[in-house]
Specification:
Blueprint lengths: L20 H21 L1 E5 L13 E6 L32 E5 L6 E8 L4 E5 L2 E4 L2 E2 L2 E10 L13 E3 L5 E11 L5 E5 L9 E5 L4 E5 L21 E2 L3 E11 L11 H4 L11
Antiparallel strand pairs: 1-2, 2-15, 3-4, 3-15, 4-13, 5-6, 5-12, 6-7, 8-10, 9-10, 10-11, 13-14
């Protein structure tokens, strides 16, 4: 008579770990630290809230700002946890023509402008024309910058710039001039009329400071305007947040909380535009 075959014990299935509030809290803490680390020291998103950088950037543009190209300062962390300190770690100056985000000395908010002059440069404006180190910057008239009228972009206070496209859509057409910095960096600027900010200086930029301007020369509270009255003034390099790299997408302001309105509000031609 045959003996019964030995039974092979099946391995026990691992049981589900009981819920642990402490374990979940640790996982969330690690995730938050990673996000804050990337946001503080690698890159962060930025939203264009004003018209100060037209023709390059429009209200509603979203873009990526890299945090590391110019090193780090006490203002680099996303949370204000460090005391005020001078200088930067691994610091370097931007190039003329770079579009950068800085902490405004007047209100502490993030502002975006273009670097025009570096330490040691002498900058001056004469009737809206830039002079750098005693030489007038080349300035060439360009075709008007055309911006479709939308909740995010309009010209209600200057109706002389309002027009109608061939397809019947209203647009703003702004007088545009191509400016070229030493070294060959060129970009378009908007210059609609003569204002009190079109004459400035000459001013020599001190060590560790920057002179910044918006590309929309008539609608930018930049380094021509002192912080005491809401402008940037000369910006300490500690206040540099990062360099604008590229747009991700843009909305014209017609969207609502209803997701069905989002596709129609997208400006498809403004996605992934290089800002370098």
């Amino acid at each position: 008579m045959n003996a019964p075959a030995p039974q092979i014990a099946k391995p026990a299935k691992p049981g589900k770990e009981p819920f642990s509030l402490l374990h979940e809290a640790k996982q969330w803490a690690v995730l938050i630290l990673i996000v804050l680390g990337v946001h503080s020291f690698v890159a962060k998103p930025f939203y264009i809230p004003s018209e100060s950088m037209v023709a390059t950037l429009l209200v509603g543009d979203r873009l990526i700002v890299s945090k590391y190209p110019f090193g780090f300062s006490y203002l680099s962390p996303s949370l204000p946890v460090l005391p005020r300190m001078e200088g930067r770690i691994f610091g370097s100056m931007p190039d003329r023509g770079d579009i950068i985000v800085v902490k405004s000395p007047s209100d502490g908010a993030d502002w975006i402008k273009r670097v025009i002059a570096l330490p040691g440069d002498t900058v001056e404006l004469r009737d809206g024309v830039l002079w750098l180190n005693g030489a007038q910057l080349p300035r060439e008239a360009r075709p008007d910058t055309e911006v479709a009228v939308s909740p995010n972009s309009d010209c209600p206070y200057m109706p002389q710039f309002r027009g109608i496209r061939a397809d019947g859509k209203p647009v703003c057409r702004f007088p545009t001039f191509r400016e070229t910095l030493p070294g060959g960096r060129s970009y378009d600027t908007i210059d609609m009329t003569l204002t009190d900010r079109d004459n400035f200086g000459p001013v020599t930029i001190p060590e560790n400071f920057l002179f910044l301007m918006g590309d929309n020369r008539d609608n930018s509270l930049d380094s021509r305007v002192p912080p005491e009255i809401g402008g940037l003034g000369l910006v300490p390099w500690e206040n540099i947040v990062g360099r604008a790299e590229f747009t991700t997408f843009s909305l014209d302001g017609t969207h609502t909380l209803n997701p069905l309105t989002w596709p129609g509000a997208l400006r498809g031609d403004r996605a992934f535009k290089s800002l370098r």
